[in-house]
Specification:
This protein is mostly helical. Helix content is 69%, strand content 0%. The protein has one domain: MetI-like fold.
């Protein structure tokens, strides 16, 4: 790898590119934040002013107080995203550890099947998921939203790669102390896998929190809507209330930012630890 410290101009160029990328990324967010404090007429005026000319809190008042289902949508999203994240952390870690450390019949078959699943787009599974949930009576329910997403082939593979590089000496020492396989996994492996678990938690939570395709297919009762589906109700055939959409979107981003901030100290370390040898 080239050492950019030997070429100061490359370092300057890198910072310029990263700064431009940061600006390009932040500008839409800042505009949305500004629009959340504007009346609808000012948004439709077409002016590109970042500071609201007619500052108002009516948009937030509308979604928090006058929209009766907003808090129900928020509650639904929290329940589903947290449940999916916790179940993924448990089952993906267990599957990854089994593929990395345990010997069982069909181990290589299951590993290559998981690799094959990585090439299957999520959209292809929507219709089979709908038919299965309909057959067992789980449409328009929490379990219908949680169970299909409680494992993920991508993160099984990621955890497997982490555990492949996990020091065997720690597990062997734990075996000498009389711990079972489950005891080693729970007491030794999981506590030391915090970087990988944190990275997985951030990705899984954000994916579930932002999920729109599955809710739009299996949820039809407005009281069961998640926030992405609920926000879509502010868009009508003839008019879209972008002021309300922008205000709700700002509230919508806060839990994802909170999860990232909470796991930040582990996140970068986790995304670099899950490569390694296969």
């Amino acid at each position: 790898m080239m050492n950019i410290s030997r070429f100061p101009w490359l370092k300057v160029l890198l910072y310029v590119v990263l700064t431009l990328y940061a600006v390009i990324t932040l500008v839409p967010f800042l505009w949305a934040l500004s629009a959340s404090f504007k009346p609808l007429s000012e948004i439709f005026s077409g002016d590109l002013n970042f500071l609201p000319q007619n500052f108002t809190l009516d948009n937030y008042r509308q979604i928090f107080i006058q929209e009766p289902l907003f808090w129900r949508w928020f509650f639904n999203s929290v329940i589903i995203a947290v449940s999916v994240t916790v179940l993924n952390l448990l089952f993906n870690s267990m599957a990854g550890y089994a593929l990395a450390r345990l010997s069982f019949v069909g181990k290589h078959f299951w590993f290559f099947l998981i690799l094959a699943l990585l090439a299957v787009p999520t959209q292809i599974t929507l219709i089979p998921t709908f038919l299965i949930l309909k057959a067992i009576g789980w449409l328009n329910s929490y379990q219908g939203m949680i169970v299909p997403g409680m494992v993920n082939a991508t993160f099984i593979f990621m955890m497997r790669q982490f555990f492949v590089n996990f020091p065997r000496e720690l597990e062997e020492a734990a075996q000498l102390d009389g711990l079972s396989t489950w005891g080693i996994f729970r007491r030794i492996v999981l506590p030391l896998a915090k970087p990988a678990l944190a990275a997985q938690a951030v990705f899984v939570f954000m994916s579930s929190w932002n999920n729109f395709l599955l809710p739009v297919v299996i949820l039809f009762d407005p009281e069961m809507f998640t926030l992405p589906l609920g926000l879509n109700s502010f868009k009508g055939q003839y008019i879209s209330y972008w002021n309300y959409i922008m205000a709700a979107s700002m509230v919508f981003t806060l839990p994802a930012l909170g999860i990232y901030a909470f796991f930040n100290r582990y996140f970068i370390q986790g995304t670099t630890f899950t490569g390694g040898k296969g």
